Amino acid sequence: MLSGRSRLRRRVMRTSYKRSSPYVCQMSDDGLVGELLHVVSAITFPHTVDELGSIRPEMLAALDTDSGEHIAAIVVAAFLGAMPSAVDVDGGVDLTFTDLPLNVATDVGCNDVVQSACFEIKSMRGDFRRFFNQRNTKIGDSHATTIKKIAHIVEEARREVRLAADALRAKTDETQSRNIVVVVHSFEHLAIEAIENLFISNFLDDPREDLADVASIWFVIYPSHVVRWERSRQRWVNLGSVGALDGHPEGSDSFSDVLMSSEQQFCESFRDGRQSAWAVFREGAPLAWRQPGDLESARRTER
Predict the structure, then answer these.
(1) Which of 86, 155, 185, 302 is deepest in the core (most CB within 10 A)?
(2) In total, how many domains does the chain have?
């Protein structure tokens, strides 16, 4: 069995559309020129789920699916190209990564002195998961959510970010970097920019909290977008995937398809196939989530 520290054996692809930098992506929309994009190959995600099976069973069981901790673990491990060396089972930090590849270590605050990256995961509160988990749901029962701007959602998450930062300060020392992941269920907090746009970093301002000791803040706007604020660059970075999943026709799967497929794979592999509240996007999801930017097509489909 592989150790919890084993790195992803398939090559993690870090690419861009501008040869001079691994991050800068020049786009036709003036509002996006100069925004940063970090992508990994789509096949990294199913491989990440497979590799998560190598960590200790009690750690794997500790990843709470209702709050989306399993999604956070998949996303962070995929983009860092490494498995967590520890998952919280007794009140420690939620995820710990050590021996990170050099090309991603600085993204999460690691250097010659800081040898491990610690993550605290928070899930934005909402009513949909409670509605989904009701056992007495009847035909005709419904749930409504309000469409918001992504900046408002990030602002509303300040409580979660503050709590995560306080927890990290209490649990880590100077040899560990502090990182935060906020998982957002789109049926609880629906961002208009996530429906209309392929990239959303240009809609976000720098965090307002005093977070000088936090290396990165990740927002997983499930199922379509992931953005990461990096202290080292003092800016937001769009995260995504490129290419197709194994067994799919030639072409490229959307990032939302990749995330949804990985979430399903995790539940089938490690939760006896039990469907989570995050699974509602797999079938019948708005077209815009599968093809970001085609809002008019989504509207025509829903008429």
Answers:
(1) 185
(2) 1
Cα 162 to Cα 97, 131, 194, distances in angstroms: 22, 27, 24
Residue 288: enclosing H or E segment and its boundaries? helix 287-290
Look up residue 201 and give its DSSP letter: G
User: Is 244 inside a domain boundary?
Assistant: yes
**Amino acid, single-letter form, for residue 210:** D
Q: Which residue has the higher pLDDT, 282 or 153?
A: 153
Tell me if 176 is assigned to some domain: yes
Q: What is the pLDDT of residues 128-180, one digit of tens each?
A: 777 766 656 677 777 788 899 999 999 999 999 999 999 999 999 999 999 99
- Tell me the average pLDDT of the chain: 82
260 within 8 A of 165, measured Cβ to Cβ: no
pLDDT, tens digit, 9 for 90 and up, residues 203-220? 999 887 679 999 999 999
Its domain, for residue 272, covers 36-302
In a domain, 80, yes or no: yes
Burial (CB < 10 A; 0-12, 13-18, 19+), residue 297, is middle
pTM attached to this predicted model: 0.83
Beta partners for 221? 184, 225
Tell me if 10 is assigned to some domain: no
pLDDT digits (tens, 9 = 90+) for 66-91: 999 999 999 999 999 999 999 999 99
CA dihedral 216, 196, 68, 109 (to 10 degrees): -10
Pick the closest to residue 186 from 109, 272, 269, 278 (CA basis).
Answer: 278
Q: Could you tell me if residue 81 is left (phi over 0), alpha (psi between -120 and 50 degrees) or otherwise beta?
A: left
